[in-house]
Amino acid sequence: MLDDLRNSDKIVRAKATDRLIKTGTRAVPYLLPLLDDEDWVIRYRSLEALSGIRDTGTIDAIIKKTDDPKDHVRYMAAKALCAMNDERVINILAKMLSDDHSYTRKIAAGGIAVSGDSSSETLLQNALVRETEPDVRACLEDALCRMKK
């Protein structure tokens, strides 16, 4: 199953990721070492699987990937942290509101909104003030609206 993550066929990789998610926490010890793989696709798929498994014991390992040089890995790390719905990730997601990749900023905004942490409203407002991308601005505005409900 892990070998399929290295397959050149994107569909094979996606199916392998789905199988790992279905395996649940038993897959975690095999996925964590892959977070440091030299191939960004492997790091990405490992994070994707961890996102689906939602084991809060992996949060620290996922946080380390929020500084990955590859933007796809960073946004999947943000997505994985959002899936954890754990108060420990708010500060990390707040930092990711300044990521140079717009999709990462959008995911971080959504994750902060889902957290329900009302003290994070200021973080989102500050990000909205400095944000120039229309799509990200829309996500930030949506996140602020969701937090006010």
Describe this structure in words.
With 149 residues, the chain is an all-alpha fold. The protein folds into 2 domains: 1-84, Leucine-rich Repeat Variant; 89-149, Leucine-rich Repeat Variant (Alpha Horseshoe). It contains 9 helices and no strands. It has helices spanning 10-23, 28-31, 40-53, 59-64, 71-84, 90-96, 102-115, 121-130, 134-148. Helix 1 (10-23) packs parallel to helix 3 (40-53) and helix 8 (121-130) runs antiparallel to helix 9 (134-148). The longest helix has 15 residues, at 134-148. The model has no long low-confidence stretch (mean pLDDT 93).
Helix percentage range: 55-70%
Question: At the third CATH level, what is the topology name of the largest domain?
Answer: Leucine-rich Repeat Variant
Largest sheet: none
H-E order: HHHHHHHHH
Mean pLDDT: 93
Counted beta strands: 0
- For the record, what CATH class of the largest domain applies? Mainly Alpha
CATH superfamily of the largest domain: Leucine-rich Repeat Variant
Gyration radius, in Å: 16 Å
Approximately what portion of the residues adopt beta-strand conformation?
under 5%
Architecture (CATH level 2) name of the largest domain: Alpha Horseshoe
Structural class by secondary-structure content: mainly alpha
Inertia-based shape:
elongated
Secondary structure layout plus pairing:
Layout: H1 10-23, H2 28-31, H3 40-53, H4 59-64, H5 71-84, H6 90-96, H7 102-115, H8 121-130, H9 134-148
